[in-house]
Write a structure and sequence with these properties.
Elements (H helix, E strand, L loop, with lengths): L1 E2 L2 E2 H6 L4 H12 L4 H9 L7 H11 L8 H22 L10
Antiparallel strand pairs: 1-2
Helix pairs in contact: 2-4, 3-4
Length: 100
């Protein structure tokens, strides 16, 4: 069953409703561990927090995963490499050709 654009049947499959999911999100925002929330509310003893992330994203439209600083740094370095390659090409230097 869909209520307000939310597939509540999926939540019911996990034994929760939208209010419970909101309560879980509030607890997480207050510092609770995603895995612990899954164990307590969803009866998922071997959980790692991914189901919580998926349910909150899908039903509440809230992102709970944060990008690591390493991921952001890799993105910055890739952009810098692309910029430098463009500069080399502009200067008539083929970055794929070995230096002689």
């Amino acid at each position: 069953m869909v209520v307000g654009g939310v597939n509540v049947a999926e939540l019911e499959d996990y034994g929760i409703d939208l209010d419970t999911l909101r309560a879980m999100l509030d607890e997480w925002r207050a510092g609770a561990n995603k895995s612990e929330l899954e164990r307590r509310y969803l009866n998922r003893p071997g959980s790692h927090g991914k189901l919580f992330t998926t349910l909150v994203r899908r039903h509440l439209g809230v992102e709970t995963e944060r990008r690591s600083s390493q991921t952001e740094r890799i993105r910055e370095l890739e952009a810098e490499v692309a910029r430098l390659r463009d500069l080399l090409l502009f200067a008539g230097i083929d970055p794929e050709r070995p230096a002689t």
